[in-house]
Amino acid sequence: MNKKLAAALSGGSVLLMALSGCGDDGDSKVNDWAKKVCDQVQPQLTKIANANASIQQATSDSSTPADVQKTDAAAFQSISDAYKALGAAVNSAGAPPVDDGETTQKEAVSELNATSKAYAGLKTKVDDLDTKDQAKFADGLKGVADELDKLSKSGDEALRKLQSGDVGAAMAKQPGCQRPKTSAPAGQSS
């Protein structure tokens, strides 16, 4: 059950990779827009990566149900806050200077805000888990992992659109949109 939660979190890392795409573009207006967004993105990507790492660590060691609950709830709240801040960053940057830029921006902001709400919902579900009954806790955590898996696979089409073409190429060049480097939880290696 804990491995499923950790696997679902790995799927959530897709956004981090999407935000660190690659490409090259010389359009200064697009680059200026990308800089506005990316300057605000890096702290949020780091927050998401660190929260995912804390959940993976809590589910991989022999933490008590209460410890797992506390770690997961804090991590989901942190991720929720980060997605909300990402939505605000894209919103405050205005529409990217490309065809359908306003639509692309609105869709991305809407999706980021919806993702924020979904993680807030997961935090509430984790808070409501019964930590005194190991079996009930495990079943509840499995349900949370299932929802997390669906969330990580859910439509991130608006974000992919934001990350495509000239905008994606410009964002890929910005240091703030590079995938953060976090220390992975201690794993088993031979």
TrEMBL record:
It comes from the Bacteria. This is Small secreted protein. Residues 166-190 are annotated as: Disordered.
